[in-house]
Amino acid sequence: MSHSYSKVFGALALLGLAVSCRANSPPMVSTGPRPSPQVVSAGGEVSFVFEVEDPDGDAMSFEWRQMPEQPAGRFSDPAARNPTWVAPDVSDTTTFAFLVIVEDSEGDAIVAQGPGVIVHAAASQAP
Q: What does UniProt give as the signal peptide span (predicted)?
């Protein structure tokens, strides 16, 4: 009979350990990403205001993307927390959206997207 009780207490002890483990929380965005300026000409540089924290204090990684992907602008560092972006040459005025994937070191991730950036085509020059 005591052997049965020891199994029950052992199972309860393991359950108690599992319940007391801390759950991971994903990163939380407080601001942004907000581009500045929001209207540029081809070749113009845009910076981003982006504030994000991980409630658990986990390290975070960043992956910035533009949409549409073509024509491609240039991020100063697409893995940086707050990169800059240089607008590509466009044939017509084009609005680009930006998103950033933020993943903590425990594997929880979020996707944040802010307002778009309008890129004006370079003025054509007559020959």
A: 1-23
